[in-house]
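Dear Dr. L.,

I hope this message finds you well. Following up on our conversation about the binding site, I have prepared a predicted three-dimensional model of the protein together with 2-oxoglutaric acid. For your records, I am including the exact sequence and ligand specification that went into the calculation, followed by the structure tokens. Please feel free to forward this to your student if that is useful.
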Amino acid sequence: MARLELRGAGIFKGFLPPPEQARIVEEVRQILRAAPLFAPQTSLGRPMSVRMSSAGRFGWYSDRAGYRYVTHHPGGAAWPDIPAGILRIWDEVTGLSRQPECCLVNWYGEGARMGLHQDRDEADFSWPVVSVSLGDDGLFRIGSRTRGGKTESVWLTSGDVVVMGGAARLAYHGVDRIRFGSSRLLPAGGRINLTLRVV
Ligand code: AKG
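The resulting structure of the complex is given below.
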């Protein structure tokens, strides 16, 4: 496993070996059985191309009223617990005794992308954000705390883990595109990204 650094974010290439990736995908399926994917809207009422769900005490949600954490899936049920294998990734890469309260599941189908944004809906930015990539390759772009500043990109492949902490915690970042069908982990193609956060 190689650890790279890109604009202050730690990128653990190949952190999860293939059998572990398959186990984590099973845990994601378990989350999605209890809390099916839905298509959030931006605050301008536009549908996002990425579909989402969550696990944990809080789930991330967005509609015309804005971006926020909520305690229930839009279908009405409380979010399921964050599965143990996913929590273990957080423990291993952060070494922190506090665990995340939200695991956001992002699902990228063909053509899906995520525009540059900062993660700033949390109360305390001293906790890192940990992101896990599974399935198809995604072109991840990261800049600084200033919108419109210089950015750099890296292809994230299945099993990579990114830690955005310290100066990188509020860096603008996003996913410009995926290489649909580039991985065999998900039989129907697509990319799953999990982000773990203390809310
Ligand atoms: C987010 O959930 O805030 C992301 O930026 C996800 C990034 C990714 O899909 O790699």
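In brief: The CA atoms of residues 48 and 119 lie 16 Å apart.

With kind regards,
A. P.
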